[in-house]
Write a structure and sequence with these properties.
Blueprint: H1 2-9, H2 21-30, H3 33-41, H4 53-65, H5 69-94, H6 99-111, H7 115-133, H8 138-153, H9 157-174, H10 180-195, H11 199-217, H12 222-238, H13 241-259, H14 264-280, H15 283-301, H16 306-321, H17 325-342, H18 348-363, H19 367-384, H20 390-405, H21 409-418
Helix pairs in contact: 2-6, 5-6, 6-7, 6-8, 7-8, 8-9, 9-10, 10-11, 11-12, 12-13, 12-14, 13-14, 14-15, 15-16, 16-17, 17-18, 18-19, 19-20, 20-21
Amino acid sequence: LFELHTSVEQGCQATVLLMDGEKLKDALQGGTVDDVTIALSMIDARSAEAWNPDDKAKIDQAVTASVGFMQLDLEVQAYLRASLAQQASVELAGEPTNWGLMSGVASLYQAQAKFEQAGDLHRQALTGREAELGADHPLTLNTVAKLANLYLDQGKLDEAENLYRRALVGYQAELGADHVNTLGVVGNLAILAEGRGEVVEAEALYLQASEGQEKALGLDHPHTLMSINNLGVFYTEQGELAKAEQLHRRVLARRELNFGPTHPDTLTSLHNLANVYKDLGNLAEAEGLYRRALAGYEAKLGPDHPSTLMAISNLANVCMDQDKHEEAAPLYHRALVGRDKTLGPDHTETLSSANSLAIWYSIQGNFDQAEPLYQRALAGYEKTLGASHPDTQSTVNNLKLLYTEHGKSGLAAALQRQYADNNADADMHAANELSAVESSLDQPNDNGCGCVMS
């Protein structure tokens, strides 16, 4: 993997043949190409072996001193995905009206975030299948669902919902309500409904997807476990913690049994269950699970992986909730440094870490350290999210509180005037509330704690 990185970096040309042409066409048309792209996303250079242990140590040292393991994984994944898409495009050029092949190639482009190329091919494939097979043929509906997935990835929620509902009606009529294709669309509609705040509809759809997939695929199928996990995350966000705990415990037990204790999916379940315990006030149990998840992420994904950094941040939060301020400080520092490096200075998670560390300094009465961190978070949120976003406004409130507590009423008043027009809907209560909670389905949640966190 490191040799591939260094060769490409130096401008060398390489040809990567992941499968022969006929097998690739079969995979693209049969839908199993998703298994290939998933496999490519699981590249883990840190776990790779060498014939000679001494060679492994030297290569590990070279990777650490240069590109770093996480960046190496990302670069190799991108190169192999691009090679696969290029090979598939050659096959498509020989069969330009093979709509199944075209739809598969579009999915490969989508996996590379080449949304424009993916959209053109998905739409062309959909037009072709509608003309040849009809609007309600299952293969046509497959293409409809794939185009909806693309729109969801692009944040085009209205377009995605319209296509998902078309696919749902068609699948129900052609394949039945309990078919796995139907249930997959139901799960995606649940995500959209939750995002729109349609809680009752979202719950019904999550339940339909998880119960249907368990019946059709079995409890231990990865899709079933993901659906149950997503329902658990939904219940956590809605404050229905008893239901969330039961579901996350169930998923954790099956993932530990089927995948092992250090698999990323298992670690996600640990982390999600820790979130539930934190919200329940079972802070010692939450801390133990966060520490287990963190140890697993560090070993499996490396110290600077976003999931590792999220676990660090949440562990710091639960330490603060238990008044373990001295334990929280180095964790907040580490999360901020890691996110600066991995995600960049203007990423919202990096800004959240800056805000959290500022709160820590504020609690210690350290104005000189807190102020620049608040100012950095505020400038970043305003640039990235806008002045009226809740995260921006909560940071305004934190900084204003800092000025007030340290007798700088003039600065507090100036800040109030600057953001007065955007502050009407902001939460201006005491500094022990959360202003916003980000949810990420089948990913650990980076929930704040203490003070007004963003």
